[in-house]
C-alpha cells in the first residue's frame, strides 16, 4: 500500500523553517522602523535649527531657557518635536534666563537617536556643563553616559 501525505517530522521541519524566516523578517522590519524614526528626528532638529535662526533674525537673540514650544510654535515652526533638548546659552556659557544683561547668544540643540547612525560622526558634540547639555552622551543631558547617540547642532 502506498502512503499519501507528509510525515509529522516533515511538517515540523517546514513549520520550523517558516518560523525562523518570519523572525528574521520581523527583526529587519524593526531595524527599518528605528532608522525611519531616527530620520524623522534628524529632520526635526534641522527644521528647528532653521526656525531658531529666523527667530534670531527677528529678535536679535535666541530663545531663552529650555522650552521652545510656546515661543517658536506656531509662528516659526508648526510643531516642536517633544524629544528635542534645547538650551539657550549666554556669553558666560551657562543657560540664559532672558535678562537683558544676559541674552542668548548661542544654543545647544539635540535629540537622542535609537541607532548608531553615521550622522553622529559629523554632529557638533557640544558639552555645556553650565547649561546641562552633553552632546556626547546617549540622552543629551547626562554626563558620561555612552555611547554617543545624541545628534546635536549649534548655530
Structure, explained:
With 155 residues, the protein is an alpha+beta fold. It has one domain (12-153). Helices cover 36% and strands 13% of the residues. The chain has 2 helices and 5 strands. The protein has helices at residues 8-59, 69-72; strands at residues 85-89, 106-112, 127-128, 133-134, 150-153. The strands form 2 sheets. Strands 1-2-5 form a 3-stranded antiparallel beta sheet, covered by helices on one side. Strands 3-4 form a two-stranded antiparallel ribbon. The termini are far apart. 26% of the residues are buried. The mean pLDDT is 86.
In short:
With 155 residues, this protein is α+β, with helices and mostly antiparallel strands. 36% of the residues lie in helices and 13% in strands.
Alpha-carbon Rg, integer: 24 Å
Strand content of the residues, in percent?
5-15%
Average pLDDT for all residues: 86
User: What does the largest sheet look like?
Assistant: 3 strands, antiparallel
Question: Helix and strand succession?
Answer: HHEEEEE
Distance from first to last alpha carbon = 83 Å
Residues in helix, %: 25-40%
So how many helices?
A: 2
Shape: elongated
The number of distinct β-strands equals 5
Q: Give the helix/strand class.
A: alpha+beta
Low-confidence stretches: none
What strand order characterises the main sheet?
1-2-5
Instruction: Write down the domain tally.
Output: 1
Amino acid at each position: 500500500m502506498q502512503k499519501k501525505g507528509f510525515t509529522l517530522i516533515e511538517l515540523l521541519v517546514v513549520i520550523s523553517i517558516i518560523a525562523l524566516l518570519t523572525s528574521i523578517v520581523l527583526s529587519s522590519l524593526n531595524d527599518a522602523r528605528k532608522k525611519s524614526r531616527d530620520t524623522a528626528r534628524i529632520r526635526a532638529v534641522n527644521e528647528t535649527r532653521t526656525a531658531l535662526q529666523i527667530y534670531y533674525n527677528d529678535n536679535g537673540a535666541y530663545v531663552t531657557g529650555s522650552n521652545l514650544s510656546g515661543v517658536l510654535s506656531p509662528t516659526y515652526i508648526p510643531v516642536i518635536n517633544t524629544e528635542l533638548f534645547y538650551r539657550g546659552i549666554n556669553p558666560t556659557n551657562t543657560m540664559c534666563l532672558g535678562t537683558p544683561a544676559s541674552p542668548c547668544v548661542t544654543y545647544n540643540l539635540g535629540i537622542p537617536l535609537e541607532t548608531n547612525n553615521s550622522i553622529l560622526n559629523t554632529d557638533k558634540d557640544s558639552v555645556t556643563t553650565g547649561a546641562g547639555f552633553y552632546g556626547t552622551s546617549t540622552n543629551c543631558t547626562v554626563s558620561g553616559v555612552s555611547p554617543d547617540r545624541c545628534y546635536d547642532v549649534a548655530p
